[in-house]
Design brief:
Alpha-Beta Plaits; 5 strands; alpha+beta; 4 helices; elongated; two-stranded antiparallel ribbon; 3-stranded antiparallel beta sheet
Amino acid sequence: MGIGCKRREDPFVIALPGVPMEMQTMLQETVIPYLKSQFILPAIYHKTICTTGIGEEKLAAILSDWEKQLPSYILLAYLSDIGTVKIRLITVLDAIEESKSAIEEEIEKMLPLI
């Protein structure tokens, strides 16, 4: 099970037909609503900021103090590629509005630094 998932009952198996159109309809109309009723799922929200013209090491040094003050429920990742470094913030909270607000608040603090 994923992060923070809580199962309400014993394990179960779901079998679906192999015909894609039938399977997709059953999945959307029956299986997904059933799974949502059986699990308590957290709200996961992430946002990625793409930077150019600065290396990962220098960017991490610039953001070091900001990174240290991040709440424990916000995960940070530096994703390097040729010519860019992406900064990804991820949070897992009870409500999507709460998750989104937490990430947006931290981005507002970070952007002036870079």
